[in-house]
Each structure stands twice: as C-alpha cells, then as structure tokens.
Amino acid sequence: MKVSQLIISLLVLLLGAGLAMYSADQQKVMELLVATHGGGSQISDADATGLRKLNADLDAEVARISGERSAAIDATEGARVEMRDMRDKRNDSQAKLDADKAELADLKIQVDATTKTAEQLRDTYNAALAKLKSAGSLEADSTNLTEVVEAIKAVVDRENARKQDLETRLDEERTVRTAATEKLAKEKIELNRINGINDRFFKDYMKNGDEFALLAVDMRWRFVAFKVGTDSGLVAGDSTPLLVKRGPIEVVKLRIVSISNGMAVAEFDPATLKPGVRPQVGDLVFRQKPIGS
C-alpha cells in the first residue's frame, strides 16, 4: 500500500469518528424536537413520518460511516503488516547484498593472487627461456613452445643425471669415510695402548734419578740391602738392572731378590765387579738407564 493510500485511510477514519459524534448529537436534538413538538403527547402518523425517516436516515449514515471506519482500521492494519513485510524483505535484501559484497571481495583477492602467480610463472618461464638460449640449449630466435618444453626436459634430464652421479660419489665417499673412521678408531685404540706403555716407560725413566744408599753388604753370599720408598716402582726380579756406584765409578750390577717393609735385598754377580773394587755400605744404588738416555 502506498503512503498516500495510508493517509487517505487515516483521514477517512478521523472523518468517521467525527460523523459518529455528530450523529449522536443529532439524535439528541431530534429526540428533543419530537418531545417539544408533541408537547409530550403522541403525534400523528403523518407528522411523525418525516422525523422517523430522518432518524432512520441518520442511523443508516452512522452505520455507513462506522463500516467505513472499520474498513479504514482494517486497511491501516493491513498497511502496517505490509510495511513490516517490506522492512523484513529490505533487511533480507541488505543482508544478501552484504554477503554478495563479501563474496565479491574474496573473489577479487583470489583473482589478484591468481594474477600474481601467473605473472611469477611468466617471469620464471622468461628467465628459463633466456637461460636456455644463453646456454645454447635453444635457438636464440626460437619461440616454439614444443621446442622450449623439449629443451627444458633435456636440461632436467642432465641435472637428474648429474644429481645421480653426485649421489653415487657421495655414497662412495661415505663408504670410504666409514672405513677410515673404523680404521681411525682401531688406530686410536693402538695409540692409547702405546701411550700407556710410553707413560709407564717415562714414569720409570723419571725414577732413574732415584738413589738408594747401601745399608748392608755380604760378600760371602753376594747380597746387599737398601731401603726403598713405597713409590719407587721397583719390584723383585725387575728386568731393569740396578747399578751400584761410588761417585763416577760403576761398582757392580744388582738384581732385586725381594722387597719387604721398604727394605730391598738384591744379589750381584762377582764376575761383574770392577777389578779391585767391592761394594760397601754408603755406596749408592741407581736404575740402569735405557740406551740413549
């Protein structure tokens, strides 16, 4: 319903209400006239016919106006419902329009992304094409797509072959490295063993400077006795011979027989004595240093 129709309906409604009030007032006036004209007594049918007719006409007019008012009220309610439906439709249309705008924005983003990707692919293609031409894999003036694809395929095949060759060489180097690592581990074990021997040797060698004074000498039984420390490193039957010296003179070689409570007993061979020299108390005992020391 248009706004003009709604306004007309409202005017009719107001007019009907005014006429109803007016008809009520007219009814009272007619009843007063009837009472006054008849002097409070019955009037003749001829005189009363006109008044009754007028009253009936007024009642009919009131009924008509009341009907029009009811119709106007109904029309107004219909217009209100129609306006509400139109508002709901408008809201639905706006919501759909907003959704379409959002979808359009998403589509624009996708189009922009696709366009950018296409431009990147084009640049990559042009760069690859230029590289193929500069490398001589493709004629300088060639633009045939089939030729370009074949050239790219050839380059890819060469790269794959080179990659396979590198992987093969890498596997070989890994094998060599593994073998070298195992060999190195074995050599480290051997080196540690040798270092242990060297450590013991140098430990003993450092003790070559130790000296022990003879406390007793028995020429009959060819034994001597001297005190040793707990860290002397000397043991009975030591393969490293000991020397008895008196100043720069080597008197005789000794071999330890026993060590007990810090006292060492060693034997000597008279055949090794220097002519005219015998061991005596106070002579010093030294380790015999290795050759070249």
What are the defining features of this structure?
alpha+beta, 3 helices, 293 residues, 64% helix, 6-stranded antiparallel β-barrel, Elongation Factor Tu (Ef-tu), domain 3, elongated
Notes on the protein architecture:
The chain has 293 residues and is an alpha+beta fold. The chain folds into three domains: 95 residues; 71 residues; 78 residues, Elongation Factor Tu (Ef-tu), domain 3. Helix content is 64%, strand content 13%. The chain is built from three helices and six strands. Strands 1-2-5-4-3-6 form a six-stranded antiparallel barrel. Strand 1 and strand 2 form a beta hairpin. Helix 1 runs antiparallel to helix 2. It is elongated, with a radius of gyration of 68 Å.
Main sheet makeup: 6 strands, antiparallel, barrel
Helix content: 55-70%
Quaternary structure state of the chains depicted: single chain
Q: Unreliable segments (pLDDT under 50, ≥5 consecutive)?
A: none
SSE series = HHHEEEEEE
Task: State the total count of DSSP E strands.
Answer: 6
Strand order of the largest sheet: 1-2-5-4-3-6
Number of helical segments? 3
Mean pLDDT: 79
Domain module count:
3
Bin the strand percentage: 5-15%
Compute the gyration radius: what is it?
Answer: 68 Å
Q: Report how far apart the termini are.
A: 129 Å
What is the SS-derived class?
alpha+beta
**What sort of overall outline do the alpha carbons produce when their principal axes are compared?**
elongated
